[in-house]
Amino acid sequence: MIIRRGGARNGLGGKTVAGLLAAIALAACVGPATPRPVTSPLAGPPRPVANPPAPFQDYNPRSRPSPALVSIIQSLGRGFNGHAGIAVKRVDADWVVSYNGNELFPQQSVSKLWVAMNLLDNVDRGKLKLTDSVTLGRSDLTLFHQPLAAMIGKDGYTTTYADLFRRAMTQSDNTANDAMLRRSGGPDAVRGFLARRFISNIRFGPGERLLQSATAGLDWNPSYSLGRNFYTARANLPMSVRNKALDDYLANPPDGAAPIGIVTALAKLKKGDMLSATSTRFLLDTMHEAKTGPQRIKGGVPAGWTYAHKTGTGQDLPPRSTGFNDVGIMTAPDGTSYAVAVMIGSTTVSIPERWALMQGVARAIAANHDKY
């Protein structure tokens, strides 16, 4: 073996060897490096950590509804013997709790709410004033509930649009409502108003006369507005005709609305996104004075809360009742508001059972208000 001094061209020089030895010594002093995990294709996936920490749950009521409220609304809807739709929306939040919330239900007099808004929009745009006078005659009568009929004599009845507004919204007077509808542009104007406010899934029908006549299986005749003429004509129809007409109406109601669409519009109203501040206040104040449906949703609103609302009631063809509705805004003592819609498209149960459904929704909202 021959050792060349002074290094070798093809080997490690003295300095290089010394450096290597120094590095090895240093490694021995600091200890071995942390070994890298070795994986094997036969080892399978890593085992999960036992009892991992639960993810953070955001229970901010503005972020999502109480799970209890969701459960109760679903149970109420499923447990009701009939076709019902429910929607609840907290006004200052983005969530909605619903049952059949996107299905179209007959509104009946709930549609007066959109007539009222469209009239006030005309006021906001300077097209009319609530103090403007209007004279109604016998030809302006409609049918069903119209207390104004008793006030219209041979010379008619002169009043203001503010008076008609209150009669339509607090007493659900059909003649008052139709007069407002005509003055504010008719059905197309109401549909246009809703479209401009980006409200979807709310239809507006042709007005009380045509809507109710078709639902009964009749063609409108002006004589139906007098006395009991409509009821007599309806009763004289063959039952097969009446059943088919009602079936057709329920299957595709021209005044149909989705509960979610209604609470969306009500929430926008409360926030001032539908009308001017003055008109918004006037409408909500009037809705607080509503005399109709005291045992519907309002019957379940607890002390200290307020409720501004509009009801709707459709025709009966025993054993069926249709269009039994209540929609409005519930406000808690702390000022938090909820838009609510309970709509019964068709049912055979008693009126107290329908009340129980509606009151149950109101109680669920109050019981779960900010309870997390």
Largest sheet: 6 strands, antiparallel
Secondary-structure-based class equals: alpha+beta
Whole-number radius of gyration?
35 Å
Give the overall shape: globular
Give a description of the structure.
This protein has 372 residues and is α+β, with helices and mostly antiparallel strands. It is 38% helix and 15% strand. A hairpin with a 5-residue loop joins strand 9 and strand 10. Helix 2 runs antiparallel to helix 12. It is globular and about 60 Å long.
Quick take:
Residues 38-61 are annotated as: Disordered. With 372 residues, this protein is α+β, with helices and mostly antiparallel strands.
Q: Layout of SSEs?
A:
Elements: H1 14-30, H2 67-79, E1 82-90, E2 96-99, E3 105-106, H3 112-124, E4 133-136, E5 157-160, H4 161-170, H5 174-183, H6 187-196, H7 208-216, H8 229-235, H9 239-251, E6 256-257, H10 259-270, H11 277-288, E7 306-312, E8 316-317, E9 320-331, E10 337-347, H12 351-367
Antiparallel strand pairs: 1-2, 1-10, 3-6, 4-5, 7-9, 8-9, 9-10
